[in-house]
Amino acid sequence: MSSTNSRNRLSLREACVLNDALARLALRWKMPVLHAIANGASSYGELRAKLPEITHQMLAARLRELVDEGLAVKSADNHANAPRYTATGAAREVLAIMEEICRWEKRHGRREPPPRELAERQARAETSWNEGAAAKDLRVRRPHG
After folding, report:
1. What's the rounded mean pLDDT across residues 68-96?
2. φ/ψ (deg, to 5) at 34
3. Alpha-carbon gap, residue 52 to 45, rounded angstroms
4. Which tens digit of pLDDT belongs to each residue from 63-81?
5. N or C: fewer beta carbons within 10 Å in the chain?
6. pTM score, whole prediction
């Protein structure tokens, strides 16, 4: 590990395991896939139906990670010859924590600014854009050649 980014990541991991846990859990689609499994979607097809926007590659990758990390168990369905996924106790534990984080975010998360402030921001943006466009028009154009 020679890069500053790698050293910083290691330092953060050593300082607080929370950083490592959040980085691992915050991967795109990981929590929605785990949530779907915990709420009854157990086959690949059921997961695709619950999460239609996820790509096949992303779903397959997240399922492998969840199994490797002990958050899901993959088992064969004797009738359909298709694997089934079930959430582990660790998964249910982390989902309860994530649900609490969601409630916290709803209470304290970033709010949209009041309409007046939005209008002022829009006016400032338009003014600065118009001033930039006017400055371009005022430039003396030199003939080419």
Report:
1. 90
2. -65, -40
3. 10
4. 999 999 999 999 987 676 7
5. C
6. 0.65
106 Rama sector, left if φ>0, alpha if ψ -120 to 50, beta otherwise: alpha
pLDDT for residue 97 is more than 70: yes
Q: What's the longest Cα–Cα distance across the chain? A: 80
127 vs 7, residue with greater confidence: 7
Say how far apart CA 65 and CA 24 lie, in whole Å. 10
Grade residue 143 by pLDDT with cuts at 50, 70 and 90.
low
Q: Return d(Cα 33, Cα 67) in angstroms, integer.
A: 12
All domains of the chain in start order, with CATH: 25-136 (1.10.10.10)
At residue 132, what is the residue type? G
Start-to-end CA span in the chain (Å)? 55
* Residue 59 DSSP class: H
Beta strand extents in the chain (DSSP E only): 72-76, 83-87
Would you state the structure tokens that stand for residue 92, as one six-digit string?
């249910």
Please provide the size of the chain in residues.
145
d(C-alpha 29, C-alpha 132), whole Å: 41
